[in-house]
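Chain A, query sequence.
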Amino acid sequence: MIRTAFLTVALLGSTVLPAQALAQTGPSEQQIAQLNLSATGEVRISPDQAQVSAGVVTEAQSAAQALRANSQRMQAVFAALEEAGVDARDIQTSQLNVSPIYSQVSSRDGGTRQITGYSAQNTVTALVRGVDSVGPAIDALFEAGANSLNGVTFSSSEADEAEAEARRRAVAELYETRDLYAEAGGFTVTRLLNFSESGGYAPQPVMFSRAMAMEDSATPVSGGELVVSITVNGAWEIEG
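Chain A, predicted structure.
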């Protein structure tokens, strides 16, 4: 599918110059006629996995107590994920913070804040294979003690193949269009001057919040569809 196609004929140096001046112009300074085209190839695939990021936040009077309570709940979260079918190699701690909690004071009180406790925040990232397993995995996280959901990002294990196919489609469309322009315009393509590409595949993050669901049903999750798009650009020298 062509996104953009444009013809640029750079016929510069049209001013009549003396023969001596023309003779002094090197090949690199001579301006040429160019054909510039762009084409885009797209492939749509269904996601078959998702990265789920969730966390545990605990508060206590001391940093050690907050971290200890957090670790206990996080161990339960890890166990729940494995019980839900997530492989241990697909579970990773991505962030761990312990920070003081300060009291709120007004400027009338001198503006001095006091530490009233400590907060421990631990974030786990899990790769859930199979879109149908994402909802149950999220439920398992919260039932085990997680109290924050940072996001769900859907992806496909076949992304590389889809990207290669999108690239093939884009290149085929680009050259087909080039030949069409040459035939219709009555000119000859002599050599390739430049070739580049942009776009590609990126996992699809979704806005997600854990809604209150029926006790006998998993959190509903839909992966939708992923679009892999590659755009290629080509420039050729033309004659005629």
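Residues 19-44+158-205+228-239 form a domain with the Translation Initiation Factor IF3 fold (CATH 3.30.110.170). The radius of gyration is 30 Å.
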